[in-house]
Predict the 3D structure of the following.
Amino acid sequence: MPRRFFKHGELPLVLLALLAERPMHGYQLMSSLKRLFGPRYRPSPGSVYPALEALEAEGLLEGESGGGRTVYRASSVGAEALEERAENLAELEMRTGVEVRPSRSLDAALSRFKARLAPLSGRVDVEAVAAVLDRAAVEIESRNGLANKEKNDD
């Protein structure tokens, strides 16, 4: 028996993340899923449309019908739910190697980082990890000129 590609609740989460980026109709969503996860995952109307209907029933999506198609977009409640489930999405991205959300902000990258390190909890020296993170923050600041700007502001 073939193993399921998405774990329970992941497909609706991915759909919500895609629709938070831009409104799409079902066929566009299936094309996006195929582009992102193919050939390991082949989306079907039998899985995508029921997930969309469930998301809409929960108030996480808004659908607008026209021209024989329904275009879906994430509602404000859906955007909040997506933020609340950022760690779940990061875990999926780490497991599949697919970046669902474009990294325009640090939030997605930090969620993936946290998901990657979570399995190491209790097996690492917390002080050593804190020191590594502090050095990384200093390097990131210096690459962006933030350290110099803050010194000049003082």
